[in-house]
Structures are given as structure tokens and as C-alpha cells.
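> forwarded from #structure-qc
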């Protein structure tokens, strides 16, 4: 019978230890809600790029904060031919704006580790020495005694909500009682304790709530990074096409200036024939006005270059260097193979702001569920089991300890209920209101985004229609100017009225060309803004952000898919 009891006790202890070890590693796998390419880009951007004299330690180099370390300074104008893909890629790889939100995501990732650490096991130990020397009233009382206790254990909170502790303790006792023979006594104890919540704090849903919220917040931070990346890409596209527009308008202004110069030379050549000083001054005034417009066009190009350079943050074109960015020509529009309904559907599913709002709703739901769990009565099951032995040599009691011959058990329940329970009731009500607020925020954001998508879709269509109109206007203005130019050699005399008509025709052609150029840029910008609203602006181009890391239009859906 004793052998049967010992084996049964061993089986119980082994079963309890197996239960603890099995529960320790329970956990929900982390779901990836963000494109892996975005995650890789975020991790690569979690470090600000180096600049000179960051802390302004050198008073003679106050402009160092605007400069990048370079192998050698550039001499003369630095002409940089830049495609739109390269502009976006450089901005995504170096812009301080995106580094800021990248660091937010990395900080949120550390919160996940901190939340998971609450379930890490803890190793604890204790050593205690107690020496007593008391007067004896009889030979059967202890006068001098010495007790040394060494304790070592491990404790942990597991996903079920339970808290367990496994402890080994060894007590070495000596006293001066005559019948103890002045011998040391060794008492090893192996104890296991567990406290399992039944209502409040019970179950993996309550235990892992903090980890779930940290994971969701990390996903929200990653989506905020993606949103910022898309906003930055849209800004770069806008600045790039504005620069292309400004350079094209500069070229148009140079051409119209050349026309005015040629007209002035022709007028001067006809002085004394049929041209008077009035026509000369008329042509001279037109040339001066066009030179003034050329100066303004040159200023607009430099302003557009600086705006693009700020977004790109490239060492080749810091804001102090002498550079010229040569963009590609604005491409002609393609057929928009997406209707308004599809654009709305993409925005509701893929816009990062919408996904963030949905995740915020999930965070509110987790907090509300946890508050309702905390509102319940605390009812915990507490159980413990221990095996102990006694011997006069260190090895002897440990052999008996493994036999589990002297085993103790305890089991009970702990009840706790705060009268009124107002604090937890108020917390539950607060979390419920936060959930309702998150629902309202999501609905409001959806409505705002729907209006924005419809407006931007109409903006694309309007830009296409305006481009068609301006194209016809350019053709008409060019035909008019050509007709006036062709009629000039066969006219009887050069009248001020004819010269005015010719100069006005030149201005009309230049203005129509500038208007068509603006419409072309507006179309490309409208497409980019529509893509941003649908959450697909990064898929418009194949971007080489880092070696081996591409955002490919074949890998991501975009407006033409």
C-alpha cells in the first residue's frame, strides 16, 4: 500500500509540473497586417541620416545642420537628371519626415516585448542564517541553535491567468539538546503552489489583453508609417511635376522671348521703309516684358527645385549646394481604367487611415472585454503540494525526498468582492464609451474619405477634359500665329495694328502652351492624389528603395489594376 501511495504521489507531482510547462508556451501567433515591403522599409529607416555639426558645437558652422558628409565638395553647377521613380525612392530612403514615424513604429515594437515579458518566468532565491543563544531552564530546552535556510525557485504567470511557483528549500538545523547528539539535521522541501483565477483575470483572453493591445498598436504605428510614406510620395510627385511644369514653362518663355527678339529685329530692319519709331518701341516694350517674365520663370524653377530637394534629402542636392534638377518630361495621360465605385472600394479597404481606425476599434474592443472581465468577482482556486524529508547527512534526505514518502497537500478558494464595485463599473462604462467613440470615428472617417475620393476622381476627369480643351487651344493659337506670320511678307506696310496683333498672337500661343502644360501637370498630380486616397500611390511606380528591395507595380495593385 505504501509503495502504491508513493507512486501515486509521484504521478501527481509530475502531472502538475507537466501542466505548468505545457501552459507556459501558450500564445496566439502574431498576425501580419502590413505589407512586408512596408515593414522592411520601416526597419531600414529607423535611423536618422548623418548631417554635419548636428548640435551646432562649432559657432562658425551654423549651416552644418543643412549639410551632408560628402567625399568632396562639388565645383560648379551640379546637373542631376532625375526620374520620378528615383525621386520617390530617394525621399523614402532618406527623408527625415519618414524617419520620425519609422522610429514611432520601432518604439511600439518594444512595447510588445515589454508586454510579453510579463509572462516571463522569474528565478528567485533566498539564504537566511539564524543564530540563537538563550538561557536554559532545563536540559530539555534549547539553549544554542543554528538554522541555515537556502531556498531556490521559479515562478511565472501563464496565459491561463494562473500563477505558479516551484520551490526547493534546504534547512540545516543544529541545537544543543543532549538527545540530538549535537548533530546537524537536513530538511529538504520540494513545494509547488498554483493560484488559478476562475472569474476575474481568468483565461487567455484576459491574460494576453496587454500583449494584444501592444501588437495592435504596433500595427497602427506601421500603418501610420505607410500613411506617411504615401503622403511623402504624393508630396514628391506633386513637387516633381511642378518642377517639370516650371522647367517647361521656362522653355516656353525662352521661346516666346526669342520670338519677340526676332520680331524686334524685323521691325528695326524695316525702319525707313514702313516702320516707325512707334513700332520699334512697341516691339521693344514686348521684349522687355517677356524678359521680365523669363526672370520670374527662372525664379519659379529654383523654388520648385528647393522644394523637391528638401523632400528628397539627397547629399548631391543639399540646400546649400549649386545644383540643377533635370526632371523627365510630363507624360501624356493614359486611359483611367478604374471607375468611381472601384476607387471607393479600394479606399475603404486599403487606405491606411481606414485600417488604422479599424485597428483602433479592435483595441477599444479588447479594452472593453478586459474591463468587463475585471468587473467580475475574484474567485481563485489555490492549491499546493510539497514533499519533505529529514536526515542527518545531506544525501540521505534527498533520496527520501525523491520517493515522495512525506507529502502534503492543500487546496482552497479565495473570494473577493468590493462592495458597490463602483470603480470597475465606471471603468467598464468608460471602455464601452471609448468603443462607441471608435465606431463613430470609423464611420466619420469613411464618410470623409468617400467624399475625398469622389472629389479627387472628379478632379482627374476634369483635368483630362481641360487637357483636351487646352490641346485644341494650342493648335488654334499656333495656326493663328502661323497665318499672321505668313501674311506678313505680302502686306503693303507694317502698321502698328498688325504688329500688335502679331505680338498678341505670340502671347496667346505662349499662354495656351503654358495652360496645356499646367493641365498636364494637374492631371498627373490628380492621379497621384487619387492613388493616395485609395492607398495605392506606392504602387504607381517601380521603386528601388534599397538594394534588393523594390516596390513593384507588378507586386502591388494600383490604379491600372
Amino acid at each position: 500500500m505504501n509503495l502504491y501511495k508513493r507512486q501515486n504521489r509521484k504521478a501527481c507531482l509530475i502531472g502538475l509540473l507537466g501542466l505548468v510547462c505545457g501552459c507556459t508556451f501558450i500564445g496566439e501567433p502574431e498576425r501580419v497586417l502590413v505589407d512586408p515591403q512596408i515593414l522592411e522599409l520601416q526597419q531600414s529607416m529607423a535611423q536618422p541620416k548623418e548631417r554635419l555639426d548636428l548640435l551646432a558645437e562649432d559657432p562658425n558652422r551654423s549651416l552644418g545642420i543643412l549639410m551632408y558628409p560628402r567625399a568632396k565638395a562639388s565645383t560648379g553647377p551640379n546637373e542631376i537628371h532625375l526620374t520620378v521613380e528615383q525621386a520617390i525612392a530617394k525621399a523614402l530612403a532618406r527623408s527625415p519626415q519618414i524617419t520620425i514615424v519609422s522610429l514611432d513604429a520601432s518604439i511600439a515594437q518594444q512595447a510588445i516585448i515589454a508586454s510579453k515579458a510579463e509572462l516571463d518566468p522569474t528565478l528567485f532565491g533566498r539564504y537566511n542564517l539564524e543564530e540563537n543563544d538563550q538561557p536554559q531552564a532545563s536540559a530539555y530546552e534549547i539553549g544554542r541553535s543554528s538554522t541555515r535556510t537556502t531556498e531556490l525557485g521559479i515562478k511565472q504567470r501563464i496565459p491561463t491567468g494562473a500563477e505558479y511557483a516551484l520551490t526547493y528549500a534546504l534547512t540545516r538545523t543544529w541545537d544543543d539538546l543532549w538527545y540530538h547528539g549535537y548533530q546537524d539535521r537536513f530538511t529538504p522541501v520540494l513545494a509547488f503552489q498554483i493560484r488559478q483565477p476562475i472569474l476575474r483575470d481568468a483565461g487567455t483572453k484576459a491574460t494576453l489583453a496587454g500583449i494584444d493591445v501592444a501588437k495592435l498598436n504596433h500595427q497602427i504605428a506601421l500603418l501610420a508609417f505607410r500613411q506617411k510614406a504615401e503622403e511623402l510620395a504624393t508630396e514628391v510627385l506633386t513637387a516633381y511635376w511642378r518642377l517639370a511644369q516650371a522647367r517647361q514653362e521656362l522653355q516656353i518663355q525662352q521661346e516666346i522671348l526669342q520670338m519677340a527678339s526676332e520680331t524686334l529685329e524685323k521691325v528695326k530692319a524695316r525702319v525707313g521703309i514702313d516702320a516707325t519709331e512707334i513700332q520699334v518701341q512697341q516691339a521693344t516694350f514686348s521684349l522687355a516684358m517677356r524678359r521680365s517674365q523669363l526672370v520670374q520663370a527662372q525664379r519659379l524653377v529654383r523654388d520648385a527645385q528647393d522644394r523637391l530637394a528638401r523632400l528628397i534629402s539627397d547629399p548631391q542636392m543639399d540646400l546649400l549646394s549649386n545644383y540643377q534638377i533635370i526632371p523627365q518630361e510630363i507624360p501624356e495621360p493614359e486611359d483611367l481604367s478604374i471607375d468611381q465605385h472601384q476607387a471607393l472600394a479600394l479606399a475603404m479597404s486599403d487606405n491606411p487611415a481606414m485600417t488604422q481606425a479599424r485597428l483602433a476599434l479592435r483595441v477599444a474592443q479588447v479594452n472593453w472585454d478586459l474591463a468587463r472581465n475585471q468587473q467580475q468577482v475574484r474567485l481563485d482556486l489555490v492549491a499546493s503540494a510539497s514533499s519533505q524529508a529529514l536526515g542527518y547527512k545531506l544525501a540521505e534526505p534527498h533520496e527520501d525526498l525523491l520517493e515522495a514518502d512525506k507529502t502534503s497537500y492543500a487546496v482552497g478558494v479565495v473570494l473577493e468582492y468590493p462592495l458597490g464595485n463602483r470603480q470597475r463599473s465606471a471603468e467598464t462604462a468608460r471602455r464601452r464609451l471609448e468603443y462607441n467613440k471608435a465606431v463613430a470615428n470609423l464611420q466619420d472617417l469613411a464618410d470623409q474619405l468617400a467624399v475625398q475620393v469622389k472629389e479627387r476622381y472628379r478632379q482627374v476627369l476634369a483635368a483630362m477634359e481641360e487637357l483636351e480643351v487646352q490641346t485644341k487651344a494650342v493648335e488654334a493659337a499656333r495656326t493663328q500665329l502661323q497665318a499672321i506670320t505668313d501674311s506678313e511678307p505680302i502686306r503693303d506696310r507694317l502698321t502698328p495694328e498688325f504688329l500688335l496683333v502679331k505680338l498678341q498672337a505670340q502671347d496667346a500661343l505662349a499662354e495656351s502652351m503654358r495652360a496645356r502644360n499646367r493641365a498636364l501637370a494637374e492631371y498627373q498630380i490628380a492621379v497621384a492624389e487619387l492613388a493616395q486616397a485609395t492607398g495605392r500611390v506606392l504602387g504607381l511606380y517601380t521603386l528601388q528603395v534599397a538594394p534588393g528591395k523594390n516596390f513593384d507595380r507588378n507586386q502591388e495593385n494600383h490604379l491600372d489594376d
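QC bot note: Residues 2-32+120-210+376-424 form one domain. The longest strand covers residues 144-157.
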